[in-house]
Amino acid sequence: MKNNQQTASALQAKVKQFIQYVSMEKGLSDNTTLSYTHDLRQYSEFLASRNVSDFKNVKSEDISNFLYLLSELGLSSATRARSLSAIRGLHVYLYTYSVCDSDPSETIDMPRKEKNLPDVLTIDQVLKMIDQQDTSKPAGLRDRAILEVMYACGLRVSELCSLRQRDLMIEHEIIRVLGKGSKERFVPIGKSAIESIHEYQLRIRHLHANDRSKDILFLNRRGAGLSRMFIWKLTDKSSRSAELPVHVHPHMLRHSFATHLLEGGADLRAVQEMLGHSDISTTQIYTHLDREYIKEVHKTFHPRA
To answer: Is 286 a catalytic residue?
Structure first.
């Protein structure tokens, strides 16, 4: 992790020079300067994770892979286009001032605008969905806890359905998640989700638990674990009750989790670690990050932490 941080710092030193240049020479607004700084910091961290220690060694495929990763994390085409604009500006600057021998960004096309409905919710839309649950009823308490956990931790539906009580490490504010390929990871969980889980366990779960429950956290009335279809129906019903202008499916909460963290300024590698994503190069896995560091990122940037 230390080597990656050192590499990222070396890259960001060049980024800082570029930001100072465009701020003075181009007269960029404060908002644009902040956006450039944010986007190029994430870009530098991505390059460092791929052991690219100098902008001279950047290839077009590195930029394409970075933009693809942003897409996989749920960022809109507009946000990706903004990132590419900043990246292009940086590489043009480095090429113009002979820091680099070529401009690897010149062959990269701008992301196309999506014609489909957006697959990321706003923070307010997520909160409206959560608030639709009638917590005066047992099912409402459980369903609110489900939505809180999905949004707090960015879980896949299968991961949520298989979550067990022993996976909750509440005193450490983290949960253990068994992801794809039986890969285990630890994800921070915010206070709002913790409170909802505690309320559900205290008042509801024991009423339905039986020999079939097998320590599964979220149960139906028969004491069995919930199905994927139930979670799909819950998110659809909640979004309709909230009168959202989009058709919501469970994965949108996962995308929203990542997007809200990243747009808030969270570290790209930390978010990827929380999601359980391996590097898109398929040959390299992102550096495993210290749990305390990931918890700090989550606590600082997640809207419900």
So the answer is: yes
